[in-house]
Amino acid sequence: MSVSTFPSEQDAAPDYRLSARDRQLIVATQAGLPLSSDPWATLGRQLNMPAGEVLARFRRMQEAGVLRRLAAVPDHYRLGYRFNGMTVWDISDQAVSEMGRQVGAQPFVSHCYRRPRHLPWWTYNLFAMVHGTSRQEVESKAGQIRELLGETCSGHTILYSSAILKKTGLRLKKQGDPSCSE
Amino acid sequence: MRLDSTDKQLINLYQRDLPVCERPYLEMSRQLGISEGEVIDRLQVLQSDQVVSRVGPVFEHRRAGASLLAAIAAPEEQMDLVAARINRAPGVNHNYAREHTYNLWFVMTAPDEDTLDERLDELEHQLRLPMLRLPMIEGYHIDLGFDIDWEALP
């Protein structure tokens, strides 16, 4: 389980600045890492950079916390998880951090965040994304979260996605725009 | 889309963390008990079948720039129009329709916090609809995927 807060509160070097060469690497791997036995050398040939430097830069970005990880990111929708429920919870301020950690540790939760309330329009301060092959499955998982939260929770709802209107896998555009995977 | 046990094991093991080392696919092949070439072939097939959306780096967006989850309550009859405007706005990378009064949920990104605020202000002004801005205060489990229950899948 990963616990992190605002960047200034993270352990990783807060002052790490991406160099132009780091950015070149980020742009070059937006669609993915080359599927070749030495992907760093393949990237290096594309960018005219020694393979050793390519790997060293990735390692440094990882140490600095800029690169979270390398991963084979599955498409859950394609796998059959057609129901994506954003479960949102109204948790007492004193309990929300502890409850967030517990909810985030559930094997069926893919993201779990604390976000601000906007009273009176929006009363929920904890978000947990739950995936299922049916609505019942999402609901039963939300029920498990509800039990875990006990008296700390005074309300919740589930927002099902009815359409994905835009989802770009891009992580960083050329002009330096980041992208994220929320 | 037919996945055998090796494909499933590959996804289970590497959906979260793939080794950042000189020969990542060789390292994977040792753990999976297949050849490096087969790891690469399987990843290629999984990617072209879109079972795996990408094999590659996941960057920390809050370190590479700024981003924020926002929601809009669009009147039902204006939803398509509003959604299209959101999609066209610079920096929007996700936009989901959800069944709720707040029916459009999107992620706005920018190179820095100030630009992010400007982009959100501009979009809010353009839409003439109030926007919920929901920055992350604390993350407890960020984008690490979840355990796939292969038995339960159709």
What does this structure look like?
The complex is a heterodimer of chains A (182) and B (154). Chain A has six helices and five strands; from the N terminus they run αααβαβαββαβ. Helix content of chain A is 32%, strand content 25%. Chain A has helices at residues 20-28, 39-47, 51-63, 76-79, 96-104, 135-149; strands at 67-74, 83-91, 109-114, 126-132, 153-167. Chain A folds into two domains: 14-63; 76-160, Lrp/AsnC effector binding domain/regulation of amino acid metabolism (RAM) domain (Alpha-Beta Plaits), CATH 3.30.70. In chain A, helix 2 (39-47) crosses helix 3 (51-63). Chain A is of the alpha+beta class. A four-stranded antiparallel beta sheet of chain A has the order 3-4-2-5, covered by helices on one side. Chain B is α+β, with helices and mostly antiparallel strands. Chain B is 40% helix and 24% strand. Chain B contains six helices and six strands, in the order αααβαβαββαββ. Chain B has helices spanning 5-14, 24-32, 36-48, 61-64, 79-88, 113-127, and strands spanning 52-59, 66-72, 92-98, 104-110, 131-134, 138-141. The mean pLDDT of chain B is 91. Strand 3 of chain A pairs antiparallel with strand 6 of chain B, so a sheet runs across the interface.
